[in-house]
Amino acid sequence: MNKPVTPPNSLEAYWMPFTANRQFKAEPRIFTGADGMYYRTADGRQVLDGIAGLWCCAAGHNRPKIVEAIRQQAGELDYSPAFQMGHYKAFELANRLVSLMPGSLDHVFFTNSGSESVETALKMAIAYHRVRGEGQRVRLIGREKGYHGVNFGGMSVGGMVANRKMFGTLVTGVDHLRHTHGVEGNRFARGEPEHGADLADDLQRLCDLHDPSTIAAVIVEPVAGSAGVIIPPKGYLKRLREICDRHGILLIFDEVITGFGRLGTPFAVDYFGVEPDLVTTAKALTNGVIPMGAVFAQSKIYEAFMQGPPNAIEFMHGYTYSANPMACAAALGALDTYEEEGLLTRASEIGGYWADAVHSLRDCKSVIDVRNLGLIGAVELEGIPGEPTKRAFSAFLKAYDQGLLIRTTGDTIAMSPPLIIEKSHIDFMVDTLRSILNSLD
Ligand code: PXG
Q1: Which pTM does this prediction carry?
Q2: CATH class belonging to 67-340
């Protein structure tokens, strides 16, 4: 049977991701262009991008080096098979990336998203133990409130209840550390909070419960983004590393939002001075322009796989679009832009001004906490009794109407602007938010 004719502008056919479809389709918010710090809306307004797209457009929008790299690549080599074939830009990009990453994280596996990077890292961890004769290490440990994307592995190690509850029993053999949010004495902390490093000892508790020889890996976001910006207590990540080392457990940092300058250093690995065994990235790798992710692996992991007959595939994993030439070109253009403009360390320069600005919101109506690190800021609101998420979502809608794009999760407002942000933009963000917060019910 023929489908009824859909008018070209109908919003119905598109089932939108992580979106209140009915609310959106009743009151659509459509972008038609973007440049620098701003989006343009269908109704001809400018909206300041307070969240770098979705934490991905680190250099802002419409950046010439990236645009030109993609244009050129499309006419030169549009696609090259990812398996058993190569192209130069894939190797060039891998080399550039490992030169940015400290320590011995010197091999890179390409994916197409943060979710795929997480699946890849989890599979690498389990297979790494197996190729070394420790095939009994199959358990994966995540953390409450963690977000590691939406695929089954990442969802299982993730700890955001709403993202898990609809999807059955998930991957088995997974357990979770306690989260570090809301520790006594940490409210309104500037930067890393003082209290709660001992929560890392929860890993020892899980080791005692399961026996550490059954655990393959622990995955955490160095700074949790999606659950509402949770900054790790001072010393917490170092302690996790120590416990992993004690028991031969791999440590995975999910740097999908912290990678590429968000904290004022190229990676959170640099910021916290803790070297994990695997690092997942995506988002700002290409400035968000073309989907791409990358998993960094320590050389000991790569080397462990390089055995057996030389013509045998060592790791049975990969994607049709791994190291896609267009994505590699975009990533190289992004890295050039970051380098030329000093963006990978810019958040450390403007971070003090940012912290002052975000914390100036602490006295606004309904605010119960303010958190910051690098160019990340969060304002947590007291929820309306019986109507969780509503107050923050109202702030989001009002901000959009007033020319500012923010994100909300639960009753927390999250901000993660492009790293090219200037003081005047920061002033606009907090002034707009201040008047909105004080006007909310
Ligand atoms: N890991 C982490 C730590 C993430 O933050 C993913 C994995 C998944 O990436 P992909 O590319 O598959 O979406 C993410 C994604 C928000 C927000 O506003 C955060 C993400 C995505 C969209 C919105 O907090 N993080």
Answers
A1: 0.98
A2: alpha beta
